[in-house]
Design brief:
Blueprint (H helix, E strand, L loop, with lengths): L5 H8 L13 E5 L1 H10 L12 E3 L7 E5 L6 E2 L4 E2 L7 H4 L3 H5 L5 H4 L3 H16 L1
Antiparallel strand pairs: 1-3, 2-3, 4-5
Length: 131
């Protein structure tokens, strides 16, 4: 049996299926002002009108904003079932669920909501059962 933590093994074998399930869960994604500006530029919207975006100030860290993720995320295109800002999505979204887990923002059970992660875990457990 491997001495590598299961979360590290799951992360190393993870490949996002772009199913959008993570986009359907609520929460707060920390983003930098530069990421917010990049999103605004990508959407060709003036960042000066913050009412167009679901960003709020991060009171505990003024160098960040929060992207308030509702059910589903503001940037999730329900008709196309895709992320409207996929090319410029924030680092926390690109690294989900791993960055959030490492920052103690979620539990292993939260990570297992992702079908891609769950599939890797099932394969790992099946392999261990064979050994």
């Amino acid at each position: 049996m491997s001495k590598v933590p299961v979360v590290d093994v799951l992360h190393s074998r993870f490949e996002c299926h772009k199913c959008g399930l993570c986009c359907a869960h609520g929460g707060q994604i920390k983003i930098t002002p530069a990421e917010a500006q990049e999103i605004a530029d990508y959407l060709n919207v003036d960042m000066g009108d913050m009412s167009l975006f679901p960003f709020t100030a991060c009171l505990d860290d003024p160098d960040f904003l929060y992207l308030e993720v509702k059910d589903p995320c503001f940037f999730w295109d329900k008709a196309e079932r895709t992320c409207m800002i996929h090319e410029v999505k924030p680092a926390m979204c690109r690294d989900y669920p791993w960055a959030l887990y490492k920052a103690h923002g979620c539990l292993l059970q939260d990570i297992l909501l992702c079908p891609a992660v769950y599939g890797v875990l099932v394969c790992l457990l099946a392999h261990e059962a064979e050994v």
